[in-house]
Structures are given as structure tokens and as C-alpha cells.
Give the backbone structure.
Amino acid sequence: MAAAFDLAFDPWDPAFLADPYPAYAELRARGRVIRYEPTDQWLIPHHADVSALLRDRRLGRTYQHRFTHEDFGRTAPPPEHEPFHTLNDHGMLDLEPPDHTRIRRLVSKAFTPRTVERLGPYVDGLAGKLVDGLVERGGGDLLADVAEPLPVAVIAEMLGIPESDRAPLRPWSAEICGMYELNPSQETAENAVRASVEFTEYLRELIAVRRKEPGDDLISGLIEAHDEGDRLTEQEMISTAVLLLNAGHEATVNATVNGWWALFRNPGRLAALRADHSLVPTAVEELMRYDTPLQLFERWVLDEIEIDGTTIPRGAEIAMLFGSANHDPEVFQDPGRLDLTRKDNPHISFSAGIHYCIGAPLARIELAASMRALLQRAPTLSLAAEPKRKPNFVIRGLEGLRVEVR
């Protein structure tokens, strides 16, 4: 085990947030597991370990299926945070078997490959419309004008949320996701609680409407989904809908702007992509690896484990560094190089194991659609201003990405 003394790894340092990858290289050189006191976590920087631990059932996204807070040596969250935790803790992402298995099975009955495939023409059409608007205006903010409205509209369309109700979705999501950062502030927690209450109330009303008037949408599908007499509870439906919205667009939004910012910084690669649109599928995978939208994924140690001779006790928290794993030279040749033709690309941006992202196929469709639309309809797209990085570590993105079309 290496101790975190004088590390360049500092998730609150703007210089680190601007480019964390050199610090990750230092972590990997230090060892396979590093104790990090500021967050009371064990950092895991290597791809092989991250990939294996994502599949290790001695770890869990929660511990409450086996232990009380006291038994696990942890303090219960403040009572005033209860609305956020009720919403969060009933979603697949923060559950373990058997509840995770049951809910994912039922959700999969509604969230089928056919459902995703059927959205293809809608995604392509909307991406084209958004890019056309950007071109007509001579440019704008790629985040606000294309990257954000596309996946939000798509997941809202899937869920059956009327267009007139969609304005609060992105703010609610951003406030809830603020709680996934390391050591969130009290203000962040208050905003997340308020958003959780408002979003829950809205979905409860929408579910009531769909019970009476079912439609061809995911909310109706979740209501109807059953297996051997088993159904989702109302809270599970609400938590699932919120998870699908949050996970279904946060990664896509950030992958889009991170990706185009990387392309602008690598003009030779962008020129090659513009010359050969058949590179889009491998480009999408490479851009998700190159600047990973979700940098860290946490797990609780349910049963003592050992990594490279270091014993990590039950009750500890592990921080798997996706961004570091995706730049591990043991797996990726010349990982600091943006290679849009990279064929062997086992990045873990969508996680792995039982918590592998159920929306990964949809995310890939959205990322490819927006990239194709921008390549085809805005071939002169260029950077208009240096972007500002969001002051977040776990969910990595930009405040905006100003572009122009001449």
C-alpha cells in the first residue's frame, strides 16, 4: 500500500480538475491501492483492479441489505436529507441483490433493445434540428444548444414526460447529482433535497395519470412490468425514472462537450474524422475513454479484501478511479494519445458487472447522432472561446463550450 503524502491528486484543486491524468499516472506508479485521508477512502487507480472490483460481490453500492449503520461503523445520514436518500436508495444503482436483481429484471422488460432501437430516427431527427439551429445562428454554446437538450428530450420522450413539463428536468438532475461529489456542502445537500421532493411529487402525479391512461412510454411500461406476480413499488418506479434521467443524460452531455473540446485540441484528429465519417463509432468510444465523464465510482467493503498485500477492512470505502483506469498503459497503448481508430478499447466508462449501465446502448446512439449531425451540417465548426471546467471531480464536464460556424 502507498500512503497519500504529497500527492498531485487533489479533487478540489482547479489545476488538477483541468487535467487530472498526470496525477493518475503518479497514483498508478505509487501502487495498486492508496489510502486517501481527505475523503476517508482507498483509491484504486489500475484498470485490472477496477475491472475486477466492479465484479467483486464482497463489495457493494450499499451495505444496508446486510448491516445497520452502527454495525457497519458508519453514521446515518442527517434526517433532513431523507427525501434525497429515499429517492436515491430505491434506484438500481444503489441497490444490491436480491433487490437490484429484481428491479433490473423488471426495468429491462420495459427498457428493451427494441425500445432503444425504435428511438433511433427520433434521435437523429432531433440532433439534426438542434445542429441546424446552431448553424443558423452562426454558433453558440454547444453544451446548451445541442449536448444538453438532445439526451434530456430523448429520455423525457421515453418516459412520456410532456414537452410542457420538461424545463425543470435538467435543474432537478443537476441538483440531485451534486450529492455524488466528494464531501458535498450543506448548500448542495439542501438543493438536492429540494429537487428530490419536487421531482418525486411530479412523478407521483404522472404515474397516477398513466395508471388511468397508459401510453406507449416507459412510465406505462414500468407500471405494467411484472414477473411471476412481482411488480415495482411506486417508490421504485419513481427512483428508476429519476435514475434513468440522471444517468441517461449526465454522462451523454459531458461526454459530448468533453469530446469536442478534446477534438478541438487535436485538430489533426478532427480533420481525419471530418474526412471519414465512418470513424464515428470508434471515435465515440475513444472520446469516452480519453476524457471520462464519470471519473470515480464508490463501493463499500462488505467483507474484508486484500489488494497487493494490503488488507482493506469491512466498513471501508473504495474509490475506483475510472479516469485513471482508462489511461492505464498496461491496457491502452499510448493512453495519452487521442486515437479515433483505436479498435481494442476496453474502457470502463459505463462501469461493469451487475451495475453496468443499462442505458449504454442509448448513450452510444445519442453520442453518434450528435457527432454525425455536427460533422455533416457544421463542417466548419470551430472553438470560439476557451471553455471553463466545472468545479466538479466525480462528474467531469464543462460550464459551456462556445463555438462558431462560418
